[in-house]
Amino acid sequence: MVTRTCIKLRKESLESGEKVKEIVTTLKEKGVIVIGGHVQGLGIIRIFGKNSIPCYLLDSRSINIAKHSKYCSKFLKIDSKQEFISFLVELNSKHNLKDWLLIPTDDNYVRILSQNKELLEKYYRVSVDSWQVIEKCYNKRITYRIAQDLGIDMPKTYFPDNLEEIKKLNADFPCIIKPAIMHKLNSQIHQKVLVCKNREELITNYEKVLRYISPDEVIVQEIIPGDSDNQYSACFFYNRTEPFVSLLARRKRQYPMDFGKCTTFAETISKNSLIQSAQLMLNKINFWGLCEVEFKKDERDGKYKFLEINPRTWKWHSIANKSNSPFLMSLYNFIYFRKPIVKNEWDACVWKDLITDSAVQLKLLFSSKLEKSVSQEKEYAVFDIGDLHPFIFEIIYIPYLFTTR
């Protein structure tokens, strides 16, 4: 059972949450720049904003919900015609943002910041690790080979390099084709994976994905049976060999319901074996920073199979508000004071994307698969009575969001 605890600090850390706030307010001018303005970005802005830390939002789209938050100090649209690093350097000078903290919300911006970390740290603080580490999470071919070497349970996974290998592949059907670098394919076909029911579909889908990605980025993987009820995430602010902050949750519902692009409902749980498996991976790659390590329970053998590492905040990270898991404030404290908040226990709670999850629940209701949720502390993705504008604009933007995501 998940228990309620107070924040525990290391000896070198601050003694109380009040002192955290006191010291943070002395550095108000050292704000945060959030790159990406949907639910994930909104959650970051609100957490820092409620701690009196100014937040700027950068996004490539003018239509986003995060810019409407009262905690968003300034919104700046990313100039798509300008190289992004040059854009950031000019932004730093123009708005006097020396040593502000950069926090990306998607994999591509993680890559850009990581690959240019040394240059960017002349102007900013960067919340992602060096590319030497991040690449091992970013490229799933590398990630899966590390997991295999460590003997971590994972789906049967293959790395074909050409069509001839695809034709001879001894895979069970149905299976999926997925990219080693997720955003490249997803941005083109708006699908995370392609399901292959037989060898003919495997060949057809392989040829299809080669229009967008190279052969050395293709992964073929078995499908673990079971719905999103079996999806789990171990989440961390990690420090090379141990977590400063951690949390474990079941991602109970997602949209779409089979191979979801996004979680719509998550609930905290307690299961030490998943935390340990995640740490084994993170220790091996010497990881530092915020991350989510995903697993799926295989009902055939009862094992929890490793899926991927997301080296950034995740969509539902604001569950931290109700679980009392200070991922972002611990990160901020570490970067500016080298005094992180340490807390590796969490409160029982749930997170819900009110609009999207209602649609998912309706589908489950018609299929008689909807379970009643336990009454717990609930964090909403967008709805906040003290910051209503993002929710109002989310409703207004529904047609646009539906057609572009």
Task: Write a brief caption for the model.
The protein is of the alpha/beta class and 405 residues long.
Question: From the helix content, strand content and strand pairing, which structural class follows?
Answer: alpha/beta
Number of domains: 3
Largest sheet: 7 strands, mixed
CATH homolog superfamily of the largest domain:
ATP-grasp fold, B domain
Strand line-up in the sheet with most strands: 14-13-10-11-12-15-16
Report the average pLDDT across residues.
89
Quaternary state, please? single chain
The CATH topology of the largest domain: D-amino Acid Aminotransferase, Chain A, domain 1
Q: Overall 3D geometry?
A: globular
Count every beta strand, where a strand is a DSSP E run of 2 or more residues: 16
**CA-CA gap between termini:** 36 Å
Strand % is 15-25%
CA radius of gyration is 21 Å
Helix content: 25-40%
CATH-derived architecture of the largest domain = 2-Layer Sandwich
CATH class of the largest domain: Alpha Beta
- Low-pLDDT residue intervals, each spanning 5 or more residues: 1-27
Total of helices: 15
Structure write-up:
The structure is a single chain. With 405 residues, the protein is of the alpha/beta class. It folds into three domains: 112 residues, NAD(P)-binding Rossmann-like Domain (Rossmann fold, 3-Layer(aba) Sandwich), CATH 3.40.50.720; 67 residues, Dna Ligase, domain 1, CATH 3.30.1490.20; 177 residues, D-amino Acid Aminotransferase, Chain A, domain 1 (2-Layer Sandwich), CATH 3.30.470. The chain has 15 helices and 16 strands. A seven-stranded mixed β-sheet has the order 14-13-10-11-12-15-16. Strands 3-2-1-4-5 form a five-stranded parallel β-sheet. A four-stranded antiparallel β-sheet has the order 6-9-7-8, with helices on both faces. The longest helix is centred in the C-terminal third of the chain and has 16 residues. The radius of gyration is 21 Å and the shape is globular. It starts with 16 loop residues before the first helix and ends with a helix. The N terminus is likely disordered.
